[in-house]
Amino acid sequence: MAELKTKASRASVSAFLKSIPDPQRREDAMAVAAMMKAVTKAEPRMWGTSIVGFGSQHYKYPSGREGDWFRTGFSPRKDSLTLYITSSFEQYPDLMEKLGKYKTGKSCLYITSLSDVDRTVLRRLIARSLKSPLPGA
């Protein structure tokens, strides 16, 4: 079974965030980091080279695959700020309709700019998603 490549590291979150070349993306990333830290009450850690994660949880699937993963996190990608949550967005129709401009993947929320979304709603979405366990947990 292949080993998960993305793991927690000791790399500096602060240095990573300061190295984001686009000033607006850097500002947005720092704001999301502060929001996630406040919601999770956890210190941020780098996961791999480009994901900032908060909290940690062990999972084990029925297939036997297991590992550790962050509870919530984000990555400041070139095209969007990608937020990772632990549950499906369909669970939160009340929040999603009020959030603003975004796209979603399976458990990813893609935001072009933080100014495109309601930060209060985003904070509530992160908080609610933390109440759902990781699959296999």
Shape: globular
Radius of gyration: 15 Å
| Oligomeric nature of the chains | single chain
Overall average residue pLDDT: 89
Main sheet specs: 6 strands, antiparallel
CATH class: Alpha Beta
Main β-sheet, spatial strand arrangement: 1-2-5-6-8-7
Q: Considering DSSP H and I runs of 4 or more, what fraction of the residues is helical?
A: 25-40%
Our count of domains comes out at: 1
Distance between the termini: 19 Å
Helix count equals 4
Q: Estimate what percentage of residues fall within beta strands.
A: 15-25%
- CATH third-tier fold name: Aspartate Aminotransferase, domain 1
Q: Tell me how many strands there are.
A: 8
Keywords:
4 helices, six-stranded antiparallel sheet, alpha+beta, 137 residues
How would you portray this structure in words?
It is a single chain. The chain is α+β, with helices and mostly antiparallel strands and 137 residues long. The protein has a single domain (20-129), classed as Alpha-Beta Complex (Aspartate Aminotransferase, domain 1). Helices cover 31% and strands 23% of the residues. The chain has helices spanning 13-18, 23-40, 93-99, 119-129, and strands at residues 44-47, 51-54, 57-60, 66-69, 72-76, 81-84, 103-104, 108-111. The protein has a six-stranded antiparallel β-sheet with strand order 1-2-5-6-8-7, covered by helices on one side. A two-stranded antiparallel ribbon has the order 3-4. A hairpin with a 3-residue loop joins strand 7 (103-104) and strand 8. The mean pLDDT is 89.
Summary of the model, kept short:
The chain is an alpha+beta fold. It is about 30% helix and about 25% strand. The strands form 2 sheets. Strands 1-2-5-6-8-7 form a 6-stranded antiparallel β-sheet, with helices on one face. A two-stranded antiparallel ribbon has the order 3-4.
